[in-house]
User: Which sequence fits this backbone?
């Protein structure tokens, strides 16, 4: 029995030794797992610019809609779309600013009628002045007669005292004096009435007739419509023979032409109300026009509205484009470098609102990892918020391994994030592939992907976007 136990124990020892030896040799035969391939990019030191993106449309700084001030048929439209208009003279001496001519027969007749009434009023004034002069002469003559009658009365009164004439003679002389005084008083009152009529009634009638003449002259002048600006005809909305009407409270009237100065173009940007506080006059902007996909135009914010835009047409257009109906309008002056740009084109602007300086990395390299998964040294860094369970880290390539580095991040855009602390310029940051970043762990063996040399740190600015809702 004892011999059997010894044999069993010896067999177990031998089998165990053989198993251990097999494991040893098999471990030597199985190769270690290969290092994970990663993309590495040095952290770059430089500026990062925050922007506010806004849609809008291109319009000239100065644009006028040409409408009629009087109702009349169009008899001439010398300008087609694209015609250059100036307020000066052509080489042949003709007026280069004439845009439209209307039928003026009725307005010439109205002018002649008003002029006739004005001339009649002037004639009435001349007649009234002659009447006043005649009345004044008559009064002067009657005053002489009164003086003579008064002398006769005095003489007859003296003769009555000596009984040389009867009382009836004196009474007759007195009656003549009284009649002349009454006649002079009546003539003087009539004279004053004529003077008032001349200085007020006829004067106001003449002024009214003169106003009618001026209005008729203006109406006649309105039959020839001239351009108020130097520019180009951008739209023609009427034809010869059409009747144009003037605007009223509920009717804008007939718009015949549109003239614009295309030498100074503006973008009318629709700024969302959540971003309007960041937009200031003088800020630089980059404008992309869909009609010119290969060009980026520089711009400068010239005005920022202080009141929300409530225009129903603009709100409907903004909503149709997927934007907010609550927006403010900002005008951006474009540097077109002499290029002629049509009006009404859709455009998008990136307005540079703030600039930061610091270390930048690709945004996908910024990851969240549990604080408890970090080493004690990493958890002790000031970039780790001990009150939170997740820490913000980037992985750097150190000695063939991925090393988690806690960081404090700042503004970011769709491609880059500003690192406020935790990294130094040119630190080799692991930026991809994205699937690797999802499972990358501290201390994991990694190897830089073969290919072009790692890009050096750049000082070109990275833009941080503030999305337009």
Assistant:
């Amino acid at each position: 029995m004892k011999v059997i136990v010894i044999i069993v124990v010896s067999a177990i020892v031998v089998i165990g030794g053989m198993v251990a030896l097999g494991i040893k040799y098999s471990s030597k035969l199985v190769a270690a797992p290969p290092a994970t391939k990663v993309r590495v990019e040095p952290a770059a030191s430089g500026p990062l610019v925050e922007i506010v993106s806004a849609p809008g449309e291109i319009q000239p700084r100065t644009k006028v809609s040409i409408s009629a001030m009087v109702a009349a048929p169009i008899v001439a439209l010398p300008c087609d779309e694209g015609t250059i208009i100036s307020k000066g003279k052509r080489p042949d001496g003709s007026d280069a600013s004439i845009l439209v001519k209307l039928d003026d027969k009725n307005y010439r007749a109205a002018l002649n009628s008003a002029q006739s009434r004005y001339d009649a009023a002037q004639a009435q004034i001349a007649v009234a002045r002659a009447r006043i002069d005649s009345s004044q002469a008559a009064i002067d003559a009657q005053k002489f007669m009164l003086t003579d009658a008064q002398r006769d009365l005095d003489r007859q009164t003296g003769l009555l005292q000596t009984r040389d004439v009867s009382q009836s003679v004196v009474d007759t002389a007195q009656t003549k004096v009284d009649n002349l005084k009454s006649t002079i008083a009546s003539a003087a009152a009539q004279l004053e009435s004529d003077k008032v009529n001349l200085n007020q009634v006829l004067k106001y009638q003449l002024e009214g007739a003169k106003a009618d003449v001026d209005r008729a002259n203006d109406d006649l002048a309105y039959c020839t419509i001239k351009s108020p600006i130097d520019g180009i005809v951008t739209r023609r909305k009427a034809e010869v023979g059409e009747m144009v009407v003037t605007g009223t409270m509920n009717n804008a009237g007939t718009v015949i032409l549109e003239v614009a100065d295309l030498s100074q173009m503006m973008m009318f940007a629709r700024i969302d109300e959540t971003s309007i506080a960041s937009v200031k006059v003088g800020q630089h902007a980059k404008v992309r026009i869909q009609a010119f996909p290969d060009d980026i135009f520089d711009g400068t914010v010239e005005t920022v509205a202080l009141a929300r835009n409530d225009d129903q047409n603009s709100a409907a257009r903004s909503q149709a484009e997927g934007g907010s109906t609550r927006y403010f309008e900002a005008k951006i002056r474009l540097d077109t470098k002499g290029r002629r740009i049509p009006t009404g084109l859709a455009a998008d602007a990136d307005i540079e609102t703030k600039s930061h300086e610091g270390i930048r990395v690709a945004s996908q390299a910024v990851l969240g990892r549990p604080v408890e998964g970090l080493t004690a040294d990493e958890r002790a860094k000031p970039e780790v918020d001990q009150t939170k369970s997740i820490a913000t880290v980037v992985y750097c390539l150190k000695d063939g391994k991925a090393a988690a580095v806690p960081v404090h991040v700042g503004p970011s855009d769709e491609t880059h994030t500003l690192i406020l602390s935790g990294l130094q310029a040119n630190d080799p940051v692991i930026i991809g592939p994205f699937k690797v970043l999802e499972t990358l762990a501290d201390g994991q063996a990694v190897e830089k992907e073969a290919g072009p040399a790692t890009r050096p740190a750049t000082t070109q600015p990275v833009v941080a976007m503030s999305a337009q809702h």
